[in-house]
Amino acid sequence: MAWRYWGIDIVTLRFPNVGTVASLTERSAKMTADPRSGLNEAWSYLDVRDAARAIELGLTAKTHGAQAFFLAANRTLMPYRTEELLDTYAPGTPKLRPFVEREVP
Question: Exposed e or buried b for every residue in 41-72, given b needs 16+ CB within 10 A?
Fold first, then answer.
């Protein structure tokens, strides 16, 4: 809206579960015990250092218009295959392609 109305170039970032290594390890243990608890974020995560770097890049990017980015590590926090998680906890969810091992959907 800001870009369309005022012509302000903008970069938007959507973060999943962001945390330190310690907090993400703890979150992973909780989600492993109860996989349904990670469904809303598709078991994805982002290290706080990567989130900070993304913010820096967003602030310094030479872009035009409105740019939107969904950020996540390439693997889930779960020790289970993504396909199995989706089939069990989100049956019927359309998949545009298969997911390899623990790939983030």
Answer: bbbbbbeeeebeebeeebeeeeeeeeeeeebb
Contact 84, 76 (CB under 8 A): no
Please state, in angstroms and rounded to a whole number, the distance separating the CA atoms of residues 103 and 105: 6
HSE, side-chain direction, 13 A CA sphere, residue 72: 16
d(CA 8, CA 90): 38
Question: Strand 10-14 vs strand 66-70: parallel, antiparallel, or unpaired?
Answer: parallel
Query: What kind and span of H or E run contains 69?
Result: strand 66-70
Phi and psi, residue 56, nearest 5°: -60, -45
State pLDDT tens for residues 47-101.
999 999 999 999 999 999 999 999 999 999 999 999 999 999 999 999 999 999 9
- Count the neighbouring beta carbons within 10 Å of the beta carbon of residue 91: 7
